[in-house]
From TrEMBL:
Annotated catalytic residues: 116
Cofactor: Zn(2+)
Biological process according to GO: molting cycle, collagen and cuticulin-based cuticle; proteolysis
Protein's name in the database: Zinc metalloproteinase
InterPro entries (UniProt xref): MetalloPept_cat_dom_sf (IPR024079), Metallopeptidase_nem (IPR017050), Peptidase_M12A (IPR001506), Peptidase_Metallo (IPR006026)
Keywords (A to Z) from UniProt: Disulfide bond, Glycoprotein, Hydrolase, Metal-binding, Metalloprotease, Protease, Secreted, Signal, Zinc
Cofactor binding: number and manner: Binds 1 zinc ion per subunit.
Gene: Cbn-nas-20
Positions that bind Zn(2+): 115, 119, 125
Domain Peptidase M12A stretches: 18-202
Gene Ontology MF terms: metalloendopeptidase activity; zinc ion binding
């Protein structure tokens, strides 16, 4: 735990720093990489564990977009990846240059490697969006907090975006429920949509149109399948990924104690009410993270509340681990993340008409344990 604390406290000061040569953090056509291909190469002796983070980040991006990453130091334009002080990148492609991108030990993480790569691809910070003042209070700005007039707003503001900074006393969400959501090192579902729209990645020319369910969309990386929101899988995202739990009209508890726990409830009753639980085993592969779901009769409302959080690493952001009760109707959007139980934010009852209601536990699987309660409120089913 000491090591973790040290890394995190250093990361606060150093992480995500964005190298800005001009003050304008523009997103314009000129900054896109031609042929959807970002060239890169590492400096001699660049640590292998950091190369692994970029490999995973590139693989993540390649499997969610039409982008390619080519190791080519002879290309006219390329990203020169180095281990310098702090983590930063130029914004967008710098024509005719070998632009630098730095990853440093205190901020070395898959999510940061991906964040900096997104900068190199032309994506600005979440707090640089022109609509950010609707969602954030930003009292003192450094260059990382400037609004960028050229940001595209093709996706809604998401507190869970990997491009949004953590909360400080001078940069915090208008809605305090998102106090621990800002600064996420998970990749927001909308982050990949933004990138796909920016680079024109889509499946419009693909002969087969898939009817993707539950917020999914046809994957530009492989148009024969859909990209699914958390908790769903299968070609059209109509399969539940995780363990199913049944809700009743009474509150039921579920205690999740890690991969060797035998406390998992798998009740089959009542009809058409399912609950689905799994837990992430690898923080760096959040896309594979296990999910929790259940189903209730049509027209009903599902309620979930967290009642215990144990062993989670709790600080100013739930970047390392946490629980997401995905109650927002838009399954693509990040709902408030919790990992700390020392205030009144973590144990709110969340209601949703989404069926199933998805719960995500993410982060280290072995230590953290949590308990939640769930039930459904019946809808008006009698009239027909
Ligand atoms: C475009 O990128 C693809 C994949 O990296 C590559 O095979 C192809 O040669 C590139 N085309 C041009 C014109 O650079
Ligand atoms: C949310 O964060 C802000 C800024 O750090 C703080 O002033 C506020 O008290 C927090 N709200 C809650 C409910 O924790
Ligand atoms: C939520 O947790 C706080 C702090 O432990 C507690 O004071 C409060 O009563 C809890 N609220 C509910 C609704 O359980
Ligand atoms: C059920 O019907 C009542 C009376 O028509 C209405 O007030 C209520 O909003 C309905 N509830 C739902 C969940 O549709």
């Amino acid at each position: 735990m000491k090591v973790l604390l040290l890394l995190v406290s250093l990361a606060v000061g150093l992480c995500f720093g964005n190298q800005v040569r001009s003050k304008r953090q523009a997103l314009s056509d000129a900054l896109r990489w031609p042929n959807n291909t970002m060239n890169y190469y590492y400096e001699d002796g660049f640590p292998l564990e950091m190369q692994a983070m970029f490999r995973d980040a590139f693989n993540y991006l390649k499997s969610h977009t039409c982008l390619n990453f080519v190791n080519n130091k002879d290309a006219e334009n390329a990203v020169y990846i180095r281990n310098r002080v702090s983590c930063w990148s130029a914004l967008g492609m710098r024509s005719g240059e070998h632009q630098e991108l730095s990853l440093d030990y205190p901020c070395a993480h898959f999510g940061v490697a991906l964040h900096e790569t997104m900068h190199a691809l032309g994506i600005a910070h979440g707090q640089a969006r022109t609509d950010r003042d609707k969602y954030l209070i930003v009292e003192a700005e450094d260059h990382n907090d400037y609004i960028n007039e050229d940001t595209t707003l093709s996706v809604p503001f998401d507190y869970g975006s990997v491009m949004l900074y953590w909360r400080t006393e001078r940069r915090f969400p208008k809605d305090p429920e998102y106090n621990y959501t800002m600064g996420s090192l998970r990749v927001g579902f909308y982050d990949m949509i933004l990138l796909n729209e920016y680079y024109g990645c889509n499946c419009e020319k693909h002969p087969v149109k898939l009817d993707c369910k539950n917020g999914g969309y046809q994957n530009p990386a492989n148009c024969d399948e859909c990209t699914c929101t958390d908790g769903f899988k299968g070609q059209t995202c109509d399969e539940l990924d995780g363990h199913i739990l049944s809700a009743s009209t009474e509150w039921r508890p579920l205690y999740y104690g890690g991969p060797y726990s035998k406390t998992l409830e798998k009740s089959m009753a009542p009809k058409n009410v399912f609950f689905h639980v799994t837990v992430s085993t690898d923080y760096l592969q959040e896309v594979l993270s296990k999910k929790t779901l259940f189903q209730a009769p049509e027209g009903s409302t599902i309620e979930v509340r967290t009642t215990r959080l144990e062993g989670f690493f709790c600080h100013f952001t739930c970047d390392w681990n946490g629980v997401e009760l995905k109650y927002l109707t838009d399954r693509r959007m990040t709902s408030p993340l919790t990992c700390c139980d020392d205030d009144n934010l973590w144990n709110k009852t969340r209601s949703s008409t989404n069926n199933p209601f998805v719960i995500v536990k993410y982060g280290e699987d072995k230590g953290p344990r949590f308990q939640f309660e769930y039930r459904y409120l019946p809808g008006n089913l009698t009239s027909s």
